[in-house]
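The instructor's notes for this session suggest beginning with a concrete chain rather than abstract definitions. Hand out the sequence below and ask the class to guess, before any prediction is shown, which regions might be ordered.
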Amino acid sequence: MRQDVRMGHVVLFHSVYGLRPATLAAADRLRAAGHEVTVPDLYGVPAAGTVEEGFALLGKVGEDAVLDRARAAVASLPPETVLGGFSMGAGVAGAVLADRPDAAGLLLLHGTGGDPATVRPGLPVQLHLAEPDPYEPPEEVDEWRRAMTGAGAALEVHRYPGAGHLFTDPDVADHDPVASVATWAGVLAFLAGR
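After discussion, reveal the predicted structure:
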C-alpha cells in the first residue's frame, strides 16, 4: 500500500504587488509535489495591478508591518520550514531567516535575500533571477553571492538571460514561459527531501 508522505513545509511570501494568483498557483504546484505550503497575505488588502501601485501599497502598509506580519505567519510553523519568496518576498524570507536558524532552506525567486551573518554553514539557498534584472544590479548580486558563500551557504544561482524581472508570473508583461518552466523544475528539485 502506498503511503502519502509530506515532504516538508514551505512558506512563500508574495511580491510587492501583493497576494496575486501567481503566488497561489505556485503554492498549489508545490502542494501537488507533496509539500505543505503557507502563503501569508502581508498587506491585508487586494493586490495591486501594477508595480507602481504595489510600491504605493508597500508604502501605505509599511515595511515594519510587512515584516511583523511575516514573522507572525511563520511563528507556528515547524522550525525547519523552507523560507521562500517572490521579489520583495525574497527579501522578506531573507529577513525572517534571522529568527529561524533551523530553516531547511532559503528559496529566492526574482530577488536576493538573507544577511550572511544569519546563515548557518551548509544552509541550502537557491536563487532564480533574470539576467539582467532591473532591481538586482550584477555587481550587487556578485557581492551577495560572495558573502553568502563565504558565510557557508550551499548556494545555487540560476540566471535567465532576457527574462523580465517577475518572469514566473503569467499575469505580468515580464512573464517568460521557458524561464518559468526551468525555474519550477529547479525549485522542485531543490525542495525534494527537505
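Then share the key points. The mean pLDDT is 94. The CA atoms of residues 64 and 70 lie 10 Å apart.
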